[in-house]
Design brief:
8-stranded parallel sheet, 485 residues, alpha/beta, 37% helix
Length: 485
């Protein structure tokens, strides 16, 4: 198969600016961001500020540690993202149900408290389900049609969700939650499309053992006779962790995926593309080789890289879906084979400008970026730009000051994070995406995730009035000035 031309699907075919902002990080009085009014208002802000790409983290049901990258389903949506305000607008909740009292979910507007959010939202979701069920008629027919269309994954998810400790045992309610998530999602996506804002999603390459995916398709995973993983996923020691990252997800039984013509992968990507205009494939290096760690290991220090059939997976996806609107997260243990696979399918890779100043002539310098890539200051796994600067060695600060034309290191510091945003936007990469924390000029307290840390992650939320502190018209002019509109 010949290599694809460099210009990919429409989302990557011209210069664009975008913002990385997860749904959970949106402001809400109910403890966690959702698909309601604040999400629609954020799309409006993106349009005013010239941000034509809104990138999110995975939106599936969160797993251990409340991580969106350990989702318990590759197909379901996180029920906590359902907006109570929209349910009230639909007459499924009284307005009084939205009232937040002292000690309720929204006490800390700057952080997600998943436990509080669940305690607040789940009884109200159950109340809305009872009201929906009492209606019958057209709404009931719409739910039945939704269940019929999605039965191939929805039935298994409902059985899994109903079996969870502390969850409602009502499988019908779990089906309605997915119906409502889908309805609210489609309304948000239509609103974004009307504003010229495209959605960039995220697909974790692995899934956790405790998931509907593994329960429904155990033959697709390397499990022993007792259902325990023979080997688990992770990466060896790196700059994030001295003992490596032990993700703990089971590895795929690739022989079974081949036997089924990679049908699970096709269904997974097809369903994700029904929600998003394009997808970032997390840990793309896993499509060339994956790090296998013994199933009973306590750290990721000892493991072995083994080849994986990523080319076959991508060929199956391309046959089923056409030209793939995917971003390859080609960070970490990148080899020539990883680069060759990405180029063979014409997928843009990623460049992180935070990595560019630790030595001379780095490929992460914006001036060295290829046109066909997505450039970021940093991702959800990195510190904010102000936090990055605080831990930056002196010689790296000097390189940065020289790169941005600052008169001194002190002047470079005073110009952050604006100068970092500017060098990313001005670079040659067709797509430039900046985390919302950097637009807002926040420090390391706003970091989304520190890899290798098991708790206290994924919590940052934008304050309700934060967007008012930004000059959207000025941002739009800066985007226009570098031909990203």
């Amino acid at each position: 198969m010949a290599k694809h031309p460099t210009v990919g699907p429409a989302i990557f075919a011209r210069r664009r600016a975008g913002t990385l902002m997860h749904v959970s990080s949106l402001p809400s009085p109910h403890g966690i961001g959702d698909l309601g009014p604040a999400a629609h208002a954020f799309a409006d802000w993106c349009a005013r500020a010239g941000q034509t790409v809104w990138q999110m983290l995975p939106v599936g049901p969160v797993g251990p540690g409340d991580s969106p990258y350990a989702s318990t389903s590759s197909f379901a949506g996180e029920p906590l993202f359902i907006s109570l305000e929209l349910l009230a607008q639909d007459g499924l909740l009284p307005r009084s149900a939205l009232r937040v009292r002292r000690g309720d979910a929204g006490r800390d507007a700057s952080a997600v408290d998943y436990a509080r959010a669940r305690r607040f939202k789940e009884p109200r979701l159950a109340q809305a389900w009872a009201a929906f069920r009492a209606r019958g008629g057209g709404p009931a027919r719409a739910l039945r049609a939704f269940r019929a269309r999605h039965a191939w994954w929805l039935d298994g998810w409902c059985a899994f969700a109903a079996s969870r400790a502390g969850a409602s045992p009502d499988a019908d309610m779990h089906a309605w939650l997915q119906f409502e998530f889908d309805r609210q999602w489609r309304a948000l996506r239509a609103h974004c499309a009307g504003r010229g804002v495209l959605l960039l999603g995220d697909v974790p390459i692995f899934v956790p053992l405790d998931s509907a995916d593994v329960r429904d398709n155990p033959r697709l995973f390397r499990l022993d006779a007792k259902g325990r993983p023979d080997v688990v996923t992770g990466v060896p020691p790196d700059c994030f962790s001295a003992t490596g990252q032990l993700w703990g997800h089971p590895h795929y039984r690739w022989s079974e995926h081949r036997r089924t013509a990679f049908g699970w992968w096709v269904a997974r990507i097809r369903e994700s593309l029904a929600r998003f205009d394009a997808l970032r494939i997390d840990h793309f290096v896993g499509f060339v080789h994956a790090y296998e760690i013994a199933g009973d290991a306590k750290t990721a220090m000892r493991g072995t890289w083994r080849p994986t059939p990523g080319r076959e997976v991508l060929e199956a996806l391309e046959r089923a879906c056409g030209r793939l609107p995917l971003v390859a997260e080609d960070l970490g243990a990148v080899t020539p084979e990883v680069i060759a696979l990405r180029e063979r399918f014409g997928l843009p890779g990623m460049k992180l400008v935070h990595n560019a100043f630790y030595g001379p002539a780095s490929g992460d310098l914006p001036c060295n970026h290829p046109v066909d890539c997505v450039a970021y200051p940093g991702t959800h796994d990195n510190d904010t730009t102000l936090g990055w600067w605080a831990s930056l060695p002196a010689e790296a600060r000097e390189r940065y000051a020289a790169y941005v034309g600052a008169r001194s290191v002190a002047d470079a510091r005073r110009g952050l994070p604006r100068s970092m945003v500017d060098v990313v936007l001005q670079g040659p990469a067709r797509t430039a995406i900046v985390a919302m924390q950097d637009h807002l000029g926040l420090g390391r307290e706003a970091r989304m995730n520190a890899p290798g840390e098991g708790s206290g992650q994924w919590r940052w939320r934008m304050l309700p009035d934060a967007l008012r502190t930004l000059d959207a018209a000025r941002m739009r002019r800066s985007v226009e000035a570098v031909a990203r509109l």
